[in-house]
Write a structure and sequence with these properties.
Layout lengths: L1 H25 L12 E6 L2 E7 L8 H9 L7 E4 L13 H8 L3 E4 L11 H8 L3 E4 L3 H7 L1 H9 L3 E8 L4 E3 L11 H12 L3 E5 H7 L16 E5 L10 H4 L6 E6 L4 H9 L3 E5 L10 H10 L4 E6 L1 H9 L5 E6 L9 E2 L7 H4 L4 E9 L2 E8 L1
Helix pairs in contact: 3-4
This protein binds ligand AOF and zinc ion.
The site of zinc ion has 6 residues, from loops.
Length: about 375
């Protein structure tokens, strides 16, 4: 019947506009921390009159951006938003006030904000103002996009993505940690995109010394999207001549050291623009405890953390059960039995056969394959 047809058309349209809001929100991923990257779309009589997303640094929020573009057309319109509009006075005034003032008549919101300052009060205040509010459309997509914010708010740590590039025989480097080319150009592009969408990227000091990496996003026009570079360096021995230290003034470099590291070393790094974070020492002085490292990063606002190596860092985070997502890139070549195993003492089946993870996506990138695992 006609009423049913109309309802179905409305549902399809709602889903389309919410998917657009999600796509817009992702533009901010990696540069809105400590805030989530939210997307918003204002629709009047089936026509998009405003689009917005959380701006770099986390402000302005997505809703005022979309409302500003909609102007007077927002009156009587529907707002699609990927996270509950905020109801608190933070560094910006409450978005719900802006939504109400603009005359929005219906709000379609993907998911509630677990931030205790909001936690349902945003939706409640919109309803109290007479606005029709629907919550939950595309909530699984929104939960995935806001995984970093949710983790940080709920568990006091970032969402952790482990990236591994392995050879056909599960190795990540040749003997002596010599870097070898494992994956190709398409894979490199994907990894640099993931860097851009991460707040921070972490490696161990051994890898920092062996590879002398930059860890920046080097896609054309995207240099400004480089994440904070974090090196786990218990006794603060990263060489001053390393490319990481040399670029510390242009792209943030945080060194996580043990509290027992030499204070003089910390001062030296501070002088060249790097920031030193100290976490308590523990049983094995050569390693830092993953939970303490993650807590320190979350306290500084990091919501999405990418881990890029090496094998000991990867295995210690895997063993501590703190990895939420794994990007496993596999190249076609073999390195040989004397190569370095991807997860140190742990077999790769700790990921591929683990009941804790399932395959979210799998795709071919030239001669390589990318498999993304997520928590069950
Ligand atoms: C929204 N829209 O686009 C974002 C929201 O310190 P403030 O004022 O910037 O508030 C930060 C909190 O606001 C953050 O922890 C999260 O709960 C929410 N983020 N809310 O309505 C947005 N980014
Ligand atoms: Zn807000």
């Amino acid at each position: 019947d006609q009423v049913g047809e109309k309802l179905k058309a409305q549902k399809d349209a709602d889903r389309r506009f919410m998917q657009l809001a999600l796509t817009l929100g992702r533009r901010g991923q990696g540069r809105t921390w400590p805030n989530p990257a939210v997307g918003a779309v204002v629709v009047k009589d089936g026509i998009i009159v405003g689009r917005g997303w959380t701006q770099p640094g986390g402000r302005p929020h997505a809703e005022p951006e979309a409302l500003r573009r909609a102007g007077a057309a927002a009156k009587g319109a529907t707002l699609y938003v990927t996270l509950e509009p905020c109801s608190h006075f933070g560094k910006s005034p409450p978005c719900v006030d802006a939504v109400i003032a603009a005359g929005i008549s219906r709000v379609v919101s993907a998911i509630e904000d677990p931030n205790p300052e909001v936690a349902g009060q945003g939706h409640a205040r919109l309803r109290a103002a007479g606005i029709q509010v629907e919550v939950g459309l595309c909530s699984a997509d929104a939960a995935r996009d806001h995984a970093g914010h949710f983790r940080r708010i709920r568990d006091g740590r970032p969402h952790v993505i482990l990236k591994l590039a392995v050879s056909a025989d599960d190795k990540i480097a040749a003997a002596g940690s010599k870097p070898v080319t494992i994956t190709g150009e398409a894979a490199r592009t994907r990894v640099h995109l993931l860097r851009a969408q991460s707040d921070a990227i972490l490696i161990g000091v051994r890898t920092a010394i062996a590879d002398d990496p930059l860890l920046t996003c080097r896609l054309p026009g995207m240099a400004a999207r480089s994440p904070v570079r974090v090196v786990l360096d218990p006794i603060l021995r990263l060489p001053a001549a390393s490319r990481l230290v040399q670029t510390a003034r242009t792209t943030p470099l945080w060194l996580v050291g043990s509290e027992i590291a030499e204070p003089a070393a910390a001062t030296r790094f501070g002088a060249v623009g790097a920031q030193v974070i100290r976490v308590p020492p523990q049983a094995a002085p050569s390693a830092l405890e993953p939970p303490a490292v993650l807590r320190a990063l979350a306290e500084r606002g990091i919501t999405r953390l990418m881990i890029e190596g090496g094998s000991r860092v990867a295995s210690s985070f895997m063993a501590s059960g703190l990895v939420d997502e794994i990007w496993l890139l596999r190249g076609p070549g073999e390195i040989g039995a004397d190569g370095i195993a991807a997860l140190d003492a742990l077999p790769l089946t700790a990921i591929t056969q683990s009941p804790a993870y399932r395959v979210r996506a799998s795709e071919a990138l030239d001669h390589d394959t990318l498999t993304i695992y997520e928590r069950v």
